């Protein structure tokens, strides 16, 4: 891709900005990018230019900048939808459910700020409820089994063990079907 | 051919009708495995629409109609927005959006808005418990047909972090003329913010507080159960209702003549104006509702005047009901005619 400004050199600086959901991309060669960062007084779009300038200064001075590193979070990218952590903070929207796993480390802080809370306390989907019920049934059975073992009632313990296995394999079948 | 999109739920008077016009609860839901609308392609969005249309087909038997937003014309989409059945965003980019709407037109399910599904129920008056039961049941019905995106840590996963958790937003539209007139509104609304609630003026652009209509809703969706969120909101709203009524009594005691004059002048304008802009009409209708609720108007008027006219006098409704091509000047004349005809009915 050629630089949008000089239309001569290969564009190596790619910038995307999103304002109110409107996406705009700029592709420049290093030379033009460096120039444009110095020419921003002619430009009405100061914020974007100063951002550009900020990035370039860090890039060319080769210093670790808070903008680029920030514990590496700016480099986090969701492999499923392509949402980067930076884009997420700009847009304020997750791109898919996997973003929650990829940005997990950041989310407790974020939710604390927004909601004052970090854990769900409301209803569950039916599939989840069933899973929870099965899990609690299994843990009850395990207790029963341990008691049986303590009382040396091994026949009963074996019976319960088989029951647990049966429930678990049922659950796996359900998961495979889904 | 026009689709039938006009509701009449709002013409009924509900609980606490002197202050509360309507209540609404909406749930945001996403489907497992599909990218959220802000990251999905047009074909992925249309695949989701097709999938939901067939999996949620039972809704058709339960009295819902299914619409592709692109099959509705612009005026029809705006009418749905004026009816509070769809968001402003849902009137745009209609190629990839769809809607389930029930026959009574108080339950809507937007598809491919900010989230895959936005389920909402509206009701006249203060009616949270009833609406919550209904929407919870509907949500469970949907849950049996489709698999929701959910995490045990963060609850229902939504595009916007502000909806994560219960993904529930409950709101009321309330009429607070005495709190505005007495200047107490800023104090009260400021206090409301401290309870994790949001207030915004509604009605015409830039004229939000002129009609003295406000929307109050919960801000927080994570960390509390649905019932806790609704109970907290309702208890704050009950206090606002009490304060509004107190202010009405106070104003009636202390500025009776001034108020009565103001209300009757508003009535005069609505009875005789030749043309009325939307915001202007709303402002005077709001004053008349206040006059009716406080018995300042002796003349026998339809008690549900405000509710009956609230949506009917909006621009898209006028265009939908009369003529798609009506220009603004003629809309204003038509609006004045409709108000006059209802005021002169009795």
UniProtKB/TrEMBL annotation, chain A:
Transmembrane segments: none annotated. Keywords: Coiled coil, Kinase, Transferase. This is Protein arginine kinase activator. GO terms for molecular function: cadmium ion binding; cobalt ion binding; copper ion binding; kinase activity; zinc ion binding. The keyword tRNA-binding does not apply. It comes from Halanaerobium saccharolyticum. InterPro entries: UVR_dom, UVR_dom_sf, YacH. One of its GO terms (biological process) is stress response to copper ion. Residues 135-170 form the UVR domain. Pfam families: UVR. It comes from the Bacteria. Residues 131-177 form a coiled coil.
From TrEMBL, chain B:
Its EC number is 2.7.14.1. ATP binds at residues 22-26, 84, 118, 169-173, 200-205. Residues 19-247 form the Phosphagen kinase C-terminal domain. GO terms for biological process: phosphocreatine biosynthetic process. It holds the Pfam family ATP-gua_Ptrans. It is an enzyme of class 2 (transferase). Keywords: ATP-binding, Kinase, Nucleotide-binding, Transferase. InterPro entries: Arg_Kinase, ATP-guanido_PTrfase, ATP-guanido_PTrfase_AS, ATP-guanido_PTrfase_cat, Gln_synth/guanido_kin_cat_dom. GO terms for cellular component: extracellular space. It catalyses: L-arginyl-[protein] + ATP = N(omega)-phospho-L-arginyl-[protein] + ADP + H(+). One of its GO terms (molecular function) is protein arginine kinase activity. HAMAP family: Prot_Arg_kinase (MF_00602). Belongs to the ATP:guanido phosphotransferase family. This is Protein-arginine kinase. It comes from Halanaerobium saccharolyticum.
